[in-house]
Specification:
Length: 277
């Protein structure tokens, strides 16, 4: 680009012609539109002001995009705008980069249609440090959903705060946002308190609150036909007719649900049915 005085310069504003008619503005330098980097300076300063605690982005944006954005924002404000830049590694799915060309794009709606909650997706991400490349798979999503359901089942009765676990998790998060270590701390505490259901529930609730994990099951609309099957299965179990009980359970599964017998009664949940290639 012969208009550059130095090869490392970048465009703050780009000139346009009659071929581009949208998102252009008249300026003292002619009709044009913002450069790629100045767009983000304008948006971040406009949305958050001149002091940003954490600015995130993919590892591919570190240079030149974020270096240029930093130079622009600091020049405008006269101070260091961003306290910490956090760059995440790329996400793979089943060992491949997501792309339309390989038909490998998975949306959150696809995951939830498979009976996997948003909390499970969040847990998978939390179990991986942001600086490590994550290979997301259906198996890892299913495992996370099973963990979320196990934790949710343990939250019964009044709950108290686990101050010791809060301190441990907070230390991990303050250490370069080490969410993976924070989740491991919860798993260790859960194992340690295996014989103390009330204390274990306190630990799970405390960690879930700190990590933003919703452990509340979504409400399920039970149709008359489905309720009839549930009642028939309960009667079969009361009569110790296990064969009939299993048959009815399979019928319920055909509706896309699974049943879980708890001390407080029958619990109905969406079946986990991940798509397979």
């Amino acid at each position: 680009e012969t208009t550059k005085r130095f090869h490392g310069d970048w465009a703050l504003w780009k000139a346009t012609d009659e071929r581009r008619t949208q998102l252009t503005w008249e300026t003292p330098w002619g009709t044009g539109f913002p450069g790629w980097h100045i767009e983000c300076t304008a948006m971040s300063l406009g949305a958050f002001g001149d002091q940003i605690d954490i600015h995130t982005g993919g590892i591919d944006l570190r240079f030149p995009h974020h270096e240029n954005e930093r130079a622009q924002s600091n020049s405008l404000t006269g101070a260091e705008v961003v306290s910490s830049w956090v760059h995440a590694e790329h996400l793979l799915f089943e060992g491949r980069k997501m792309s339309k060309s390989t038909n490998n794009v998975v949306l959150l709606t696809d995951v939830m249609a498979a009976g996997i909650s948003a909390a499970a997706v969040r847990l998978v991400f939390l179990e991986n440090h942001y600086r490590q490349q994550l290979n997301l798979t259906w198996d890892s999503l299913v495992a996370a959903e099973q963990t979320i359901r196990r934790w949710s089942d343990q939250l019964t009765g009044p709950l108290n705060f686990d101050a010791e676990l809060k301190t441990e998790i907070s230390a991990h998060l303050l250490n370069n946002i080490d969410t993976a270590a924070a989740v491991l701390a919860l798993r260790a505490k859960e194992k340690q308190l295996a014989k103390s259901p009330e204390l274990r529930a306190n630990a799970i609730a405390t960690a879930a609150g700190l990590l933003g994990l919703s452990l509340v099951s979504e409400p399920i609309e039970v149709t008359a036909e489905l309720k009839k099957l549930i009642d028939e299965r309960s009667s079969a179990r009361a009569e110790k007719n296990w064969q009939l009980s299993d048959q009815i359970r399979d019928q319920i599964a055909e509706f896309g649900f699974e049943v879980n017998d708890t001390s407080s009664g029958v619990q109905l949940r969406r079946a986990i049915v991940p798509p397979r290639a």
